[in-house]
Amino acid sequence: MSDRFTTMGSSFGYALSTEQRNKVLRNTYWLLALSLVPTVLGAWVGVAAGIGQMFTGGLGMILFMAIAFGFIYGIEKTKNSATGVPVLLGFTFFMGLMMSGLIDPHTIWQVWQSGAHGYIDKTQPLTSLIDAIHAVLRGETYFSSVFQEVKARWLAQPDSFQKLLSEREQEVLKRVVSGWSDERIARKLSIEPETVAFHRKNIRKKLKLHNDRDMVAYGRLWGFS
User: Fold this and answer.
1) CATH number, domain at 198?
2) Residue 55 has pLDDT above 90, yes or no
3) Which residue among 9, 41, 65, 156 has the highest number of C-beta atoms inside a 10 angstrom radius?
4) How open is the CA angle 156-105-182, to the nearest 5 degrees?
């Protein structure tokens, strides 16, 4: 037995001293704290440049998974070298970019449509979260300034589907995305199947979509399911 190591027995080898364990813990905590910096920076860059929107939709998810697994592979390969630290920090920066995509118009619409009582994006300070909790407890709603800004900017666009599609067309689109047939939609909405087909055609024309497959993909992107 020595001052630096405590013998655990021949079958277990040795354990670190209390001093060394504390040093490892301190370094771990410092690394965790340091990793927050590129995360916040990535979120800020994503919001400012709109990069986070690249990771929305089906192709965006594929892109995200490819980059994320690339970083995970790199972290595993460099975990025992000094190179592992910048690789890990690069991964946290990327995750910050990805988080910024959570305030894209698609997410904003889905939150708004769901009837949620509030929304706080991850770029907001802790005080905003506290204000939101108090507002909801009072029976009120609370949506962050970023949420309100993105919502207003989206609704102001002339090609916003809320401006292009009537309420009935939105009802039809929702059921088309869910895989309903024209006959089932017609029964639900108390209209004729021919009218449903007419609405389908109008939806594709207004949204400049080529076929029903594109219409379904569009509907899923905007949460019509």
Assistant:
1) 1.10.10.10
2) no
3) 41
4) 95
**Secondary structure string (H, E, C) spanning the chain:** CCCCEEEEECCCEEEECHHHHHHHHHHHHHHHHHHHHHHHHHHHHHHHHCHHHHHCHHHHHHHHHHHHHHHHHHHHHHCCCCCHHHHHHHHHHHHHHHHHHHHCHHHHHHHHHHCCCEECCCCCCHHHHHHHHHHHHCCCCEECHHHHHHHHHHHCCCCCHHHHCCHHHHHHHHHHHCCCCHHHHHHHHCCCHHHHHHHHHHHHHHHCCCCHHHHHHHHHHCCCC
Measured CA to CA in angstroms, residue 71 lies from 75, 81, 94 at distances of: 6, 15, 9
Beta-carbon contacts of residue 47 (< 8 Å; ≥ 6 apart): 100, 103, 123, 146
Domain count, the chain: 3
If asked whether residues 172 and 145 sit together in one domain, one would say no
Q: Are residues 27 and 52 in the same domain?
A: yes
Burial code (b: 16+ CB inside 10 Å, e: under 16) for 174-212 equals: bbbbeebebeebbeeeebeeeebeebbebbbeebebeee
d(CA 10, CA 3) in angstroms, rounded, equals: 18
Q: Say whether both 61 and 81 belong to one domain.
A: yes
Name the band, by pLDDT with cuts 50, 70 and 90, for residue 147: confident
| Percent of the chain whose predicted confidence (pLDDT) is above 70 | 72
Angle between helices 193-207 and 167-177 (to 10 degrees): 100
